[in-house]
Amino acid sequence: METFLQLVLNGLMLGGLFAIISVGLTLIFGIIRLVNFAHGELLMVGMYLTWLGTTQLGLHPYVLAPPLVLVLFILGVLIQRFILQPLLEARDAHVQIFATVGLSTALINLALLVFGADLYAKPSSGVRDSLSFGPFRVMVGQLVMFVCGIAVVSALHLFMERSHLGRAIRATAQHRAAAQLMGVNVQRIYIVTFGIGAACVGLAAALVAPVYPASPTVGTYFVLTAFVVVVLGGMGSLHGAFLGAMLIGLVDSLSGYYIAPDLKEVVIFALFILILLFRPTGLLGLGRGSE
Fold this sequence. Notes:
Layout: H1 2-32, H2 39-56, H3 65-84, H4 94-115, E1 130-133, E2 136-139, H5 140-162, H6 164-174, H7 176-181, H8 186-208, H9 218-233, H10 238-258, H11 264-278
Antiparallel strand pairs: 1-2
Helix pairs in contact: 1-5, 1-8, 1-9, 1-10, 2-4, 2-8, 2-9, 3-8, 5-6, 5-8, 6-8, 9-10, 9-11, 10-11
């Protein structure tokens, strides 16, 4: 029983990281109606920036979190404004998705060109140290991820519910045309939303960089898992993304121990297929808003 509870604890800690990555992805889909296939590559960019900050400037990864959030927010704004926004009126809505696939490929190859295919590990800075809670042990970095996951979801919820900009974002998600009639600048909302989604990835990069080495394809695993989380929770639902992240974290931890570490991805994606077959709207899925 003690082993099982330790695995559950590990799964919940891992779920905190998945939550930070997934809320940005589900926010972009819920508002812009865009599946961002470059989401993982934005994480990769953030991890490389963290590595540069820790090795060249000697800063702790967590100290780099605020500037990384700002840098990734600006990068997300630029991507939406100059790459995706011009494609909004395209006859085929899938053009935007193809654009994010192209951006993903471009960023991976740019990373290969600049850094090569080597793994870049960061100084742990105490992040890999363990804390004891009775018979259970938790890595400091995992605990920080879990706490930050709760904080990010809570902050986004309060922002969406109580701020003027948040209400404008929710109005745009519910009915774009009606929001425009009420004076909401929908294009500006799309730009800000994509920036916020990218900023979440910036925070995730600062948290995950001391634990996982950076490489050109590091974002692939995390974003594929994030897609499962988003579908499980319900695409467009922040609370669903958090719940889905916790569940996938548990599946990852338990299947890796009781089945095989190499087969845990098989279990996760088998669950993904079952969700699509039997409950495609997810646990807390939102209906698609009107255009």
